[in-house]
Amino acid sequence: MFRPGGKMRQFEPDVIRTDRLVLLPLRVEYAEEMAVVLADPGLHAFIGGAPETAQALRAKYERWVAGSPDPAEAWCNWVIRLRAADCLVGTVQVTVADDGGGAVAEVAWVVGAPWQGRGIAVEAARGLVAWLGRLPVHTVVAHIHPEHVASAAVAAAAGLAPTDRWEDGEVEWQLAVDRGGARGGPTGAAV
């Protein structure tokens, strides 16, 4: 949801439905189930860190739900619920900031190891990009480790393309989005 008002805090996550998934706005109560979903140390191979306890996730989710302390930035976080199994299987998130030319949305996703390889991350990322296409966002970006082939495939399936820009050892992927929701090509793409 976008509420006009000029500040990035006006971006708030809505429920997003796809064929098999429901992206639910993050709630602190999801921490216990998500600690199990995110328990595989292999999920941290490219992003660093280690699995967190339910208590640590609860504290993190409390901060995330409270929102960014920076009024020029908005945090939108969701858990991914697989409808058929009625369980949580991962997360997607967006950080929206103004780059001087309008809103840029940085997206990220993670799907628990038992649910990988089923197209869940692709479906969730496409749903998220479609949701962003209805908001006043001009560019969607993701930062992906160059060796993380699966995440690169998710970004490509969601319409993003790699650029020649790097941040913290990761390739920046982009998708230009017009305010009408139509997709444009990547900006700054490597030739």
Give a quick rundown of the structure:
The relative contact order is 0.14.
Helices and strands, with pairings:
Blueprint: E1 16-17, E2 21-25, H1 31-37, H2 54-66, E3 73-82, E4 87-98, E5 103-111, H3 120-133, E6 137-144, H4 149-157, E7 161-167, E8 170-176
Parallel strand pairs: 5-6
Antiparallel strand pairs: 1-2, 2-3, 3-4, 4-5, 6-8, 7-8
Verbal overview:
It is globular, with a radius of gyration of 16 Å. The chain has a single domain (8-176), classed as Aminopeptidase, CATH 3.40.630. It has 191 residues and is an alpha+beta fold. Mean pLDDT is 87; it is low at 1-6 and 179-191. The protein has four helices and eight strands, in the order ββααβββαβαββ.
Strand order of the largest sheet: 1-2-3-4-5-6-8-7
Assigned CATH superfamily = Gcn5-related N-acetyltransferase (GNAT)
Tell me the distance between the termini. Answer: 35 Å
What percent of residues adopt helix (DSSP H or I)? 10-25%
Mean pLDDT figure: 87
Rg over CA atoms: 16 Å
CATH fold type: Aminopeptidase
- Helical stretch count? 4
- Tally of structural domains: 1
Major sheet: size, sense and barrel closure?
A: 8 strands, mixed
Structural class: alpha+beta
In CATH's first tier, which class applies? Alpha Beta
**Which band does the percent of strand residues land in?**
25-35%
Helices and strands, in order, run as EEHHEEEHEHEE
How does CATH name the architecture?
3-Layer(aba) Sandwich
Rough outline: globular
Q: Low-confidence stretches at least 5 residues in length (pLDDT < 50)? A: 1-6, 179-191
* Strand tally: 8
